[in-house]
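REQUEST ID: PR-0412
SUBMITTED BY: lab tech R.K.
PRIORITY: routine
TASK: structure prediction, single protein chain
INPUT:
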Amino acid sequence: MFREVLRKVCEKELGFHVVAEAGDGRQAIEVVKAKKPGLVLLDLHLPGLDGFGVVEEIRKIAPDIRILVLSSHCDEYTVFRAEKARVQGFVDKNTNSVAALKKAISAVAEGRLSFSPAFQKIRAARHADPLSFDKLLTNREREVISLVGEPLTDEEIGARLSISAETVEKHRLTVVKKLELKSTLDLVRYARAHGFTLSARSGDDVMLP
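STATUS: complete
OUTPUT:
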């Protein structure tokens, strides 16, 4: 249903040619390979492979393709990952209107950047915080947080990351110390509050105009 709305906006109101749609991350990558669209509208939380994984593959296939992210989650970790992925825009589906969506699509298609007010506010607050997670934690420690928050055991986390349970425990204890938390339970709460647990979940759909 959401894809149908996007298609109508793109075709009827903005005059774009929609070359294809995809219902999961893997299919999205194959469509990009085949069609080489100028603009990708991408939901972050997809079955099979999340939107960030799709972005990474798109950059390998065609680095000049412009990407506008659409997400119902606009939290600190999602904003951080979107920054690292170097997407050209972010639309928060919970707070942005259809008018704002059209404006964002047009802006990104024309070569400009377009990030929602909520995205910009969260990004600015994190940049201004000297103790934000991106300044304190390594990439591996951030990966561990996202899995601790699901929650998974150290053995299960180790299996996913191809490291030992003992190494996971060391990372977990280090993270608790760095973030000045008191326990693993506090770490789970932190992970959920900051959006880390969303990184491994699947979600909606993707559309590739």
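NOTES: The chain has eleven helices and six strands.
REVIEWED BY: pending
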